[in-house]
Amino acid sequence: MALGETKTPTLAEWAGGPERFKALFSAFYAKVPNDPVLAPVFAHMDPSHAEHVAAFVGEVFGGPKAYTEAGGGHAAMIRKHMGRHLTEAQRRAWIALMLDTADEVGLPDDPEFRAAFVGYLEWGTRLAVINSAEGVPEPEGEPPMPVWGWGPPGGPWLG
Description:
Blueprint: H1 11-15, H2 18-31, H3 49-60, H4 66-69, H5 74-81, H6 88-104, H7 111-132
């Protein structure tokens, strides 16, 4: 970098790194059993679920590739939702609880970060609902991990 230039941080850096995502998702999934809409969805949740989701989102936001390195990938995340029959009410409840938890754990609340964060939540949860429907085929190959930054994601993903 030349003198006077600044590097734009990744969303993961701006959020506070892997530890902040672990705090966010640990706090979030600790609340899920008390939510009447979400509790049934996560009734048999793996104890390491929060850590896996934190690693996934951290990677998507430009952080360490911990999810991929642990044997995950976008196809693995898609498969986690297949056949779950998620509803719009469950999606909305997930987002509402996530946003409340983000405030509680001190995730940045500046408009730029929150616009990117909420944009990702909307995009990701809508894909989760789509991929949870009956008859959705298994992903072929290894679709690339999503990469989320400060700007809009672009046109429809048709891959």
